[in-house]
Every structure is written in structure tokens, then in C-alpha cells.
Amino acid sequence: MHKLVERLTSAYAVSGDERRLHDILHGALGGIADEIHDTPLGNLIAIRKGRSSEHSILFAAHLDEVGAWVTRINDKGFLGIHCRSIDERVWPGLQVVVHGTEPLPGIIGLKPVHVMSHDEMDKPVGPDELWIDVGLPHEQVLTMVPIGSTVTFAAGISKLLNERFAGKTLDDRLCIVALVEALELLKDMTLPYDVVMAFTVQEEITGNGAWTSGYFAHPDVAIAVDVTHADTNGVPDHKTIPLGGGPGVVVGPVVNDCVLDLIRRRARAVEIPTSEESCMSYSGTDADELQLVGSGIAAGVLSIPLRYMHSPVETADQLDVDRTARLITEVAKGFDAAFIGELYGTDAH
Amino acid sequence: MEQTRIELLKKLTEARGISGHEDEVAIILRTELEEHVDRFERDAIKNLFALKGMDKPGPSVMLNAHMDEVGLYVIHITKEGYLRIGKAGGIDDRLLLGKKVLVGNDRLPGVTAIKAVHLSTHEEIENTVVKVDDIVVDVGAKSDKELAGKVAIGDQITFDTAFGTFGEGYLVGKAFDDRVGCAVVVELLKMDWPFPVIGMFSTQEEVGTKGARVGAWRYTPSISITVEGTIAADIGEVKDYQEVTNLGAGTVLTIKDGGMITDHRLRNQLIEVAKANGLPWQFKRMPAGGTDARSIQLAKTGVRALAVAVPARYIHSPVSLIKFCDYENTVSLLSKFLAQLATMEA
User: Fold this and answer.
1) pLDDT tens digits, one per residue of A52-79
2) For the CA atoms of chain A, what is the radius of gyration?
3) pLDDT band at A346 (very low <50, low <70, confident <90, very high)
4) Which residues pair with B102 in a beta bridge?
């Protein structure tokens, strides 16, 4: 496991709080990026200079994580929440962190079975019935937890068999790791053009980080690196790609033909296994916005297979992370004059 | 003192032992009590007895807590390398999605699977409870063959929950039911008493109070005190008359539960001791459920039995809470009660 995995997943940044990751990234990018920029919305953009800055290729991975927001405090000092993009059935029995005036550990529990009726147990706990216990008196909760404070799953990585591991926020911190790992691999190489690594904000709620990063960097090509669903017990095969089978490559109208061809060629050339996944309309990644920035950017999507997405036990395989990092470096190396010729050549239009 | 007691609670709650797998807890208890009791015994159902002053005069007192915890166990290994699971003890299925667990005696880390939110329908999320039969544990294996020698049918699966301090005066961890009871009994067994004391750390309470049933036959006391970690539902939006007990409100005394009525005279003496010493106590306000106290009460011609407890939130779940003051007060109350019992019964 890359050393950054534990550091990045033990940090907390629900959409809007992304600057909490900047220090870790500044540390990780020292010596492998030529420039680092902080944009008004909180995107962190690292640039590795090539021989020429006439063209650039951008890779994007998002900083934010899914979470919840405190909406109310009851008279026992328990916190009610609103959440987005999370299966609410995961909350009961979980430890969480409430990001008030300081981080507070919390528990979302249920009444015990002894005082629960069968009828109650046959229905999922509704969003309005989820209450966080922080073990503090009501008055103290009122001062320490302003309404709107964010709530995250508690951090902690479980190391499984086969270099697999589970924890919160592997979506999308693993892809951040892959981008950093790619820069490490490119450290002593001369690149034809600039490589831009955009660590974006708010992917989970708006895609606004991708919009503004695309505008900031004006790249010729933008590839979103995100997670995708890996094979899961009880889910049909056609909805997932294999865990441990290498990165996913998205095929569909979001993806530019030349970019797709470049990805496929480089993967074949260095024998990195991939799984292709098709998607019509939106890919659910930063590529959806990047494609439409300004007068348009040639977009692509690479993905790391992930089980149990948006849960506290997202499960991945380090092999897939490493292969994704290698594929990014290959694509960056292949982003040369010949490719630019193809991209802007009359044939391609 | 406080730090030592917290250390013991940490050791006991982080130990793993679903019903029938209590050895790890028994080892900790033996080590803790080695210098304080005369001898240990284990019986056919693996209860651990810590015996003290058995040749002393006077009526014998049993101090009892159960070693097992609720959890899960392996019932099948799929070809793909997932573990199908069963519940050991009463757990609400709705607590089981997306949790970290440890499998088998080698503590193999795993997680309970939860389908990605994007792959579930609104109907499923809003209306369907995923039952334990449809939940698998993922340990990262790629096939069943890979698990040969690592995981076996029947292996215990426990929640991977670290012990710690929490909020203002709370302790967080798994299995306070009934490791907190074990810890109280340990503290009482470290003290010296003028009468015979039978420490009985029982097995298989969560699957039918089985250990206590045979254990109380082997050593049948005159008086018995079962110490539990019991339900506190003083949470969320639960109405005050349904809270059962409250954290921070002192030792819980059972009058009646689903299987027994505790000894009125002993309980009233206990309350007098609490009042005399200014120690807080509360009744358990739910006359249902059952504990080892019933099994002990019914041994041979019957035993005068009490059931007391430290209140605990979220028992029978991956993570529970107690208040340290309730634990301390329970140790104080029971030690003062035993001291008085010595004079009264003599």
C-alpha cells in the first residue's frame, strides 16, 4: 500500500472542506511538481513542465468525500443529519466524526433488540431517525456543533488479503494517490508537453471543481481518474468490472476517440490489463464537466475498481492503483507531437 | 486506580469471544486474578470459576458475569471467497451493513459487504432491510481455495471496534455486555471477604444462559449477584418512559425480568446501602429479557439471587457506550454491600 493511502484516508474533507487536504498534498508533491497552484474554489493544481508548454494534458482526481451535514440538535444533545449519495442503511452501528468547532467522535446507534418490535426491525431506519450521540451535555453540543457541521465516517484502513484493503474515502483518495505516484514515476523523465495534475473540489455534489480547473489549465486533453464499481456479491457482472483486473477505461460519448485510442495503445504496449466499461450520456466523473469547459476539451476517463462505493468499507486492490499510476505515466509520455497531430489533424475532425 | 481499571476494561472489551469461543476472555481474567484468588477451575461448558476462601465459615456468595459477546460466525465459504455468516446472539440485522470485522482466532480483517448506493434502487434503500442471510463478509480473498487453513466453518467473527474514551466521561467499545460485568467481578474478587466467594465467569449466556445453568449446579451458593451491562435506551428520540435505564444515573437494579423476580430482601438491603453511602442507583424499567441470574436462582433447591448492572447504550451492536462513573459506583456499591452482608449474615 502506498504510504499516502493511510494519510489521505485518515483526513476528512466533505465537499466544501477540501483545503483540509492541501497540506498533505503539498508535502507529497514536493520535488515532483514544478508548480503548485491553489485556485479560488480550493482546487490544487500541480504542473510538471515538459519540453514545451504549448500543449498540456490534465489528469483530475477529486479531493472531496461523501458525508452528511448536521441539520438539528434535539434536547438530549443528539444530532440529526442530512446526507447525500449514501445508502442510509449503513449508518446504524457506525462510528463517525462530527466536524464542529473541533472534531468530535460520535456514534449512530439504535435501541437494542430487547426493546425493538418486529415491525420496527422489518423497516430500514429512516433518515429522520438517525441520531448522532457525542456523549456531551446539550449545552456543550450547542456551542461545539454549529448547524451545518459536516459528518464523516470514522477513518481506519483494514488490511485484507492479497494487498487489498478497506476503509472510508478510497473514492477518490486512491486516484489522488495514483496521480502522485505517476508524478513520482515521471520524476526523472523528459516529457514532450506539460502534465497537469488537478486535485479537484466538489465532485460529489456539483462538479464545480472540474469546471474551474479546466478553465485554469486550458489543457488539450483532460482525463478524469475516478473509481468505478468492482465485482460485488449479488450484483450482475455487466454492472461491474473485476477487482484486481486493472484500471477501467470508459468508452462512450464523453470520451474523445483519439484519447481513447491513446489509452488503449499505451496499455497494450506495456501490457497493463484494463477493463472497458461503456457509458452513454454522463460518466459520473469530473470528465462530464471537463469535456464542456470553454470551447471543449478532449476528455477521457480512467477508473480504479472499487467495491462498496460510498460506504465506510470501500474495498480496493493496491495492484489496480499501481497499474493506474503506470497507465497515467504511459499516456503522459504518449501525449506528444504525433498525438497532437492526430488530435487536431483534419482526419480526426 | 482509575487508569488501571480503564486498562482492564480495554483488555476485556477488545478480547474476542462469541458464545462457545470465550477462551481469550478467560485467559485475561485468570491473569488478572492470579494473585487474588485461591484457585481456578473450568468445567465441561468452560465456565471459569475463581474460588476464594472456600473453607471460610458463613454463607457462600457467588459473583457472576458472562464472558461471551454477541457477534457473527462463518456458516459457508463461497467459491468466490466470500464468507456467508450467521448471528451469534440477538443482533438487529440493520446494524450489519458496511462494518469492519475480525474473522477467526487469527483476527483476519474483513468487512461486511454493502452494495454501492448507485447499484441499489430507491425502493431497496427506503423499504428493504438486508437480512443477515444476504450479507457476506469480504476478507479480500479471490477464491475459497485461498482460504483453506485460514478460515473454517464455525469460526467466530467479531466487530473490529477499538476501546477508547468518548465525550464527557464515557467509554466506547464493543461487548460492554458483559465485559463490564466481568470487570466489576474482578474488582470485587481482588478484595478480601470473610465468607466463601465463588467467582463464576460464565459461557454461552447470549445463546440461552447455558453456562450459568450448569455452573450454579457445580457450586451452588447461598446468595448470588449477577453483574451485567444492560440496556440504556436514553438516546435519540426515545420517549422517557421507554428509556429502560439512563447513563450516569447509577447502578441498575432488576426487580423482575422475563424469567425471575430478584430477592426482595437482598435488593432492599442493597438499596439501603446505596442510600447510606450516597451512591446512585436506578431500577431497570423493563420487566422483560433474562440473564444468568435466573439460571442461578433455579439451581437445585433455589438460590437467593440479585441482578445488577452497569447501564450501557447500544449493546448488541458493533459499538457501545458506558459512563465510567456508573462502573465505579457499581464497584463501590457492591463492595459496601458485601461488607455489610458479612456482618448481617454472621
Assistant:
1) 999 999 999 999 999 999 999 999 999 9
2) 21
3) low
4) B109, B158
Q: B229 and B330, same structural domain? A: yes
Mean pLDDT of B236-259: 95
| Domain assignment present for A183 | yes
CATH number for the domain spanning A140: value is 2.40.30.40
Render pLDDT for B297-337 as a digit per residue (tens, 0 to 9): 999 999 999 999 999 999 999 999 999 999 999 999 999 99
Contact B116 A229 (CB under 8 A): yes
CA–CA gap between residue A200 and residue A214 (Å, rounded): 10
Q: List pLDDT tens digits, range A4-54.
A: 999 999 999 999 999 999 999 999 999 999 999 999 999 999 999 999 999
Same structural domain for residues A52 and A75? Answer: no
Q: Cα(B249)–Cα(A346) distance, rounded to whole angstroms?
A: 80
**Listed residue (A58, A9, A18) closest to A38, CA to CA:** A18
Per-residue pLDDT of A95-114, as tens digits, reads 999 999 999 999 999 988 88
- The verdict on a CB contact (< 8 Å) between A115 and B233 is yes
Residue of chain A minimizing CA distance to B289: A114
Number of domains in chain A: 2
d(CA B80, CA B326): 47
- Which B residues in the span 223-282 are in contact with A, Cβ-Cβ below 8 Å? 231, 233-238, 242, 244
Position A281 scores a pLDDT of 85
Residue B47 and residue B114 in one domain: no
Containing structural domain, residue A101: 68-153
Q: Which of B128, B159, B190 is the last residue of a domain?
A: B159
CB A262 within 8 A of CB A274: no
* Residue B128 pLDDT > 50: yes
Q: How confident is the model at residue A348 (pLDDT cuts 50, 70, 90)?
A: very low
**Three-state DSSP string of B219-270:** CCCCEEEEEEEEEECCCCCCCHHHCCCCCCCCEEECCECCCCECCHHHHHHH
- Residue B123 forms contact with A (CB below 8 Å): no
**Confidence class of residue A3 from pLDDT cuts 50, 70 and 90?**
confident
Q: Distance between CA atoms of A248 and A277, rounded to whole angstroms?
A: 7
Residue B261 has a pLDDT of 97
Whether residue A110 and residue B314 make contact (CB cut-off 8 A), yes or no, is: yes
| Domain boundaries, position B82 | 71-159
**Alpha carbon distance A122, A32 (integer Å):** 54
Q: Evaluate whether ipTM surpasses 0.90.
A: yes
The torsion angle over the Cα atoms of residues B121, B122, B124 and B128, rounded to 10 degrees, is: 180
Cα A254 to the chain's mean position, in Å?
A: 18
Overall number of domains in chain B: 2
Angle subtended at Cα A331 by Cα A245 and Cα A275, rounded to the nearest 5 degrees: 20
A228 close to A274: Cβ distance less than 8 angstroms: no
Which residues lie closer than 8 Å to A111 by C-beta, 6 or more apart?
B233, B235, B238, B242
